[in-house]
């Protein structure tokens, strides 16, 4: 139970910790000062959402996300969200491919070489099917967490841990709702693909509570560190590097590698959700589905996606809030949530 629970926990964290989160950009956009309560509320809401999604997935013994959508909102509305999740995963994975190519240019690997490397690493991951995805997260995510926490703890120790929480100044708590909702669609897509591999209810509680606690702790420490360098964040496109501005250059390279790994895990999670959905229609091996999807994506990395993202992401935000509300209300209207149907 504990081993499998940790495996799902790392899958959840790997889906959540993308390049935006690891760089600090998402955290600073949603939180910042007066956010201690907001981050605590996010950790609770995130755990609840994971528990509900995983329980539905377990009850349905699902292999993709459609049964989750049917349970949450009915078959008619689920058709709309099926298309939106597919489009969301597709566009975000294209952006990750472009980001992976651009990141490796720092070490003088040509852009297309970086895109090809990321593409091949994702395809190789799926030679073992879904097992490859969970194994990768079990190896990479602890490394990401260790490196990120190491940098943040050293930074805080140099400052003497100036962390204080004034509970009379916690006006940013609504950000917990929007930040949690932002990450709902990829969670539904990824966790819906592993329901048939969950063997015990205990795995769900280990994964959901563990991921909420770990992400809550990292988010709080990261946010508090960013507050200390708030004046420098207008200069740095990647907030993490504002924290590391006095670190040795080799540490900057190490953390650049960490950001690339975060891009890799996000791209892999996107392909995992897409290939599991397509696998319900096409009886192809996982690696062939992954290769086909990536083949369609690679040419699109040449386009400018700023306009596309400017239009789609606000729409995703609204749609995510609807799914978020449906997940929170599900246990109220379905009292047998803890029983497998």
From TrEMBL:
InterPro entries associated with the record: YkvI-like (IPR038728)
Bilayer-crossing regions: 7-24, 36-59, 80-103, 109-127, 139-161, 173-192, 204-222, 249-274, 286-309, 315-333
Keywords associated with the record: Membrane, Transmembrane, Transmembrane helix
Superkingdom, taxonomy of origin: Bacteria
Keyword hit for S-adenosyl-L-methionine: no
Name the record gives this protein: Membrane protein YkvI
Taxonomic source organism: Halalkalibacterium halodurans
């Amino acid at each position: 139970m504990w081993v499998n629970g940790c495996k799902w926990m790392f899958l959840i964290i790997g889906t959540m910790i993308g390049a935006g989160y690891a760089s600090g950009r998402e955290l600073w956009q949603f939180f910042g000062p007066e956010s201690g309560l907001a981050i605590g509320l996010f950790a609770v809401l995130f755990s609840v959402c994971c528990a509900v999604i995983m329980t539905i997935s377990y009850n349905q013994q699902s292999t993709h996300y459609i049964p989750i959508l049917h349970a949450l909102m009915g078959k008619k509305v689920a058709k709309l969200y099926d298309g939106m999740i597919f489009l969301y995963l597709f566009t975000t994975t294209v952006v990750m491919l472009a980001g992976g190519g651009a990141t490796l240019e720092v070490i003088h690997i040509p852009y297309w070489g970086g895109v090809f490397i990321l593409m091949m690493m994702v395809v190789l991951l799926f030679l073992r099917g879904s097992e490859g995805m969970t194994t990768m997260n079990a190896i990479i995510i602890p490394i990401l967490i260790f490196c990120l926490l190491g940098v943040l703890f050293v930074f805080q120790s140099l400052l003497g841990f100036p962390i204080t929480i004034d509970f009379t100044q916690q006006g940013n708590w609504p950000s917990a709702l929007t930040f949690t909702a932002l990450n709902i669609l990829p969670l539904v897509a990824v966790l819906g693909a592993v329901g048939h591999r969950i063997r015990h209810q205990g795995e769900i509680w280990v994964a959901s509570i563990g991921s909420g606690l770990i992400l809550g702790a990292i988010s709080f420490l990261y946010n508090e560190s960013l507050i200390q360098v708030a004046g420098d964040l207008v200069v740095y496109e990647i907030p993490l590097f504002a924290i590391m501005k006095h670190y040795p250059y080799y540490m900057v390279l190490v953390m650049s590698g960490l950001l690339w790994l975060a891009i890799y895990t996000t791209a892999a999670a996107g392909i995992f959700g897409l290939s599991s959905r397509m696998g319900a229609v096409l009886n192809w091996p996982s690696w062939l589905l992954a290769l086909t999807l990536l083949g369609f994506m690679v040419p699109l990395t040449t386009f400018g996606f700023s306009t596309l993202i400017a239009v789609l992401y606000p729409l995703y935000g609204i749609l995510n809030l609807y799914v978020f509300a449906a997940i929170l209300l599900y246990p109220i209207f379905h009292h047998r949530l803890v029983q497998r149907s």
